[in-house]
Amino acid sequence: MKIKWMKMSALMISLAFSGSLWAEPISVVSSFSILGDVAQQIGGERVQVSNLVPADGDAHAYQLTGGDVKKLANAKLILINGLGLETGDVVRAVKNSKITYAEATAGISPIKHEEHEEHDHHDHAGHDHHHEIDPHVWHDPVLMQKYASNVATALIKVDPAGAKYYAARFKNYSAELSKLDAFARQQFNAIPKNQRKVLTGHDAFSYLGKRYGIEFIAPQGVSTEAQPSAKTVAAIVRQIKQTGVKAVFTENIKDGRMVQRIAQETGAKIGGKLYSDALSRDGNAKTYADLFRYNVRVMSGAMK
Ligand SMILES: [Zn+2]
């Protein structure tokens, strides 16, 4: 009797460990929440995704923690955005971990910005980074096709048994991205071109601007690290007064005081908050698709 019971428990244990019914999800660490969501959408139940920079966090100014290093060491796959979004510390930690990693923006040709101060016709402040690469690819759902495809390829590489599963989920996600593009086109096309102007805190929306013909004005450049000069701010105040920009927004990842100050000086009204570089905890941007639709709705609403 006793022997029988032991045999039985041994059988149960071996069943539990063989993973015959359901394999343990693979651990994917993503550098920030938007990319993490793309990995979750494509990876479904085969992945367990965690992010370094959390919802509402600022990836440009992120401080790597000891916990992050452990998280990276235990991952099966690490996903980063690339194009300079991640801080040097994060990139170094990813490389030092020796875990397989992939860049979601691989193969996408980025927007390169002239250094911010040189755009206005006032005195140059003498900054030396003349061509800053813009990492905010996710605000263009057309480019996100390649981004998501890179994520699918990376998942298949580390988990080839799931290849069909990932490919099928990628196909669905790709269809959703096409719908996001169609939605944005429809919303923005309803607005006269000369009214398609938006003020935000940092220069995060150039890919959206390029795709849908919107002009974005921002006191801060493509990173949130450098503070805007008084001259830049004064130039923006003049520009807003002259052109009558109606759509003025703060962002979920940063303090809105600069935008509030500009709004006050120009008499513009703040139209709300955009979700720039992270998903949110407030329920408006739980997924990338939510984030994109929300931003398009509030921007187009404010431009009318
Ligand atoms: Zn940014």
TrEMBL record:
Signal peptide positions (record): 1-23
Keyword annotations: Metal-binding, Signal, Transport
InterPro entries for this protein: AdhesinB (IPR006129), Bact_metal-bind_prot9 (IPR050492), Lipoprotein_PsaA-like (IPR006128), ZnuA-like (IPR006127)
Gene Ontology biological process: cell adhesion; metal ion transport
Gene Ontology cellular component list: cell envelope
Keyword Cell inner membrane included in the entry's annotation: no
UniProt-annotated location(s): Cell envelope
Chief location of this protein within or outside the cell: other
Pfam families: ZnuA (PF01297)
Domain of life: Bacteria
GO terms of molecular function: metal ion binding
PANTHER family: HIGH-AFFINITY ZINC UPTAKE SYSTEM PROTEIN ZNUA-RELATED, METAL-BINDING PROTEIN HI_0362-RELATED
Family, similarity comment: Belongs to the bacterial solute-binding protein 9 family.
Name of the protein: Uncharacterized protein
Organism of derivation: Simonsiella muelleri ATCC 29453
